[in-house]
Amino acid sequence: MKHLIVLLPVLNEAQGLEWVLNNMPSKALSSRGYKTTIIVMDGGSTDESADVAGRYGVVFLRQEGKGKGAALRHGFRTAIARNADEVVMLDADGTYHPREILHLLKGLNHTDVMIGNRLGGNIQEGAMSRFNFLGNHLLTWSATAMFGITTKDVCSGYWAFNRSSIDRLILNSTSFEIEAEMFASMVHRDVSFHFHPISYRRRIGVAKLNSTADGWRIFRKLLTRRLFPEALL
Predict the structure, then answer these.
(1) Alpha carbon distance 100, 116 (integer Å)
(2) What are the extents of the domains in the chain?
């Protein structure tokens, strides 16, 4: 069986985490030949996130450093150490439906990385403000223009990787710019990737993204990695 690791970065996402874990397509994954390990990468939650993870019997790890980028980089190192064959990352706030893991994993038969495309999929009413919708498009267009390689959703948080692709990425992001840096690193290091349309739902709980500040952080990361192909670790 292939060993699949699902990474769920959280910071006070007890309700969303429970919804995600409750909707994980465990039986379908097993029938497709996957042994699945779910790892919750916790950024210092003070709510019941740890209790929810305990009730569902998944791995709960306190991440090294602060921020989503730090959580995922720690998660990638952990996945490699646990001999993962494939890795999926998604947010634990209910915006991404876990059943769509199956579509992304199927795509790994033909490419190194599969990325969920919110902008080309079904966005639930109220899930993304007009300001954020425009900002996501502007950042996606900017990434395509800077790197000369088309990306359809540079800020998507739903990705699937084969093991070799994670080994090749060089990352140093600490916050929400991590997905943009992953795109840049894939381009520089010749990691193949494709997109699959996905649904995008209204989040459960309070948003932590600061649209303006984090948007500029993402743009700066794209520009920095365009000028400096290798991240300064």
Answers:
(1) 9
(2) 2-227
The whole-angstrom separation of Cα 15 and Cα 201 is 14
Look-up: residue for tokens 């490699």? 80
Distances (CA, A) of 51 to 25, 48, 54, 98, 203: 21, 5, 5, 20, 20
Question: Which residue type sits at 38?
Answer: I
The one-letter code for the residue type at 79 is A
pLDDT digits (tens, 9 = 90+) for 182-218: 999 999 999 999 999 999 999 998 887 777 888 999 9
Query: How many residues are listed for the chain in this entry?
Result: 233
Whether 233 has a pLDDT exceeding 60, the answer reads: no
* Class (C level, CATH) for 2-227: alpha beta
Mean pLDDT for the chain?
Answer: 96
Distance CA 195, CA 25 (A): 21
CA 191 vs. chain centroid, Å, equals: 16
Element (H or E) spanning 139, and its range?
Answer: helix 130-147
